[in-house]
Amino acid sequence: MKHKFRCDCPFTSALDVLGDRWMLVIVKLMLLDFKETFKDFMESDEAIASNILSAKLKLLEEFKIITKSKRPDNKKTNYYHLTEKGLALTPLLMELAAWSDGHLRDFHPTIEDGENMKRLRKDKAALAELLEKRYRDKLATVMHLR
Predict the structure, then answer these.
(1) Counting CB atoms within 10 angstroms of each CB, which of 56, 66, 76, 119 has the fewest?
(2) HEC profile for the chain?
(3) Residue 1 has pLDDT above 80, yes or no
């Protein structure tokens, strides 16, 4: 499918793909919570509507940010996984989380403040590496079991 971009600006073009309120949330759910099925996403705290989730998964797949596959033992369920292009969004997610941590706590004091936020404050790049490695390791395990 041919996609229309507003202009030739790299920033605006990125927002044409990722600027929707759900796209990065879906990537985050995959990276941090290892969500991989439609049902997994539907059961998440983000409460994304099923029609929107379906459309966003298709778009992420079209842009090769995720892949869709089926397991040999379950031809009915689609499984979604981040591609290298999708994993390359990890530093962006870390920057957004750091910005939120530093600038939204006054407005949203219950923002998560767990171990990952402590790691993020200490070294964003190290946390990004850790999350990518963890995702790749889990994915390798899942693929090995298929």
Answers:
(1) 76
(2) CCCCCCCCCHHHHHHHHHCCCCHHHHHHHHHHHCCCEHHHHHCCCCCCCHHHHHHHHHHHHHCCCEEEEEECCEEEEEEEEECHHHHCCHHHHHHHHHHHHHHCCCCCCCCCCCHHHHHHHHCHHHHHHHHHHHHHHHHHHHHHHC
(3) no
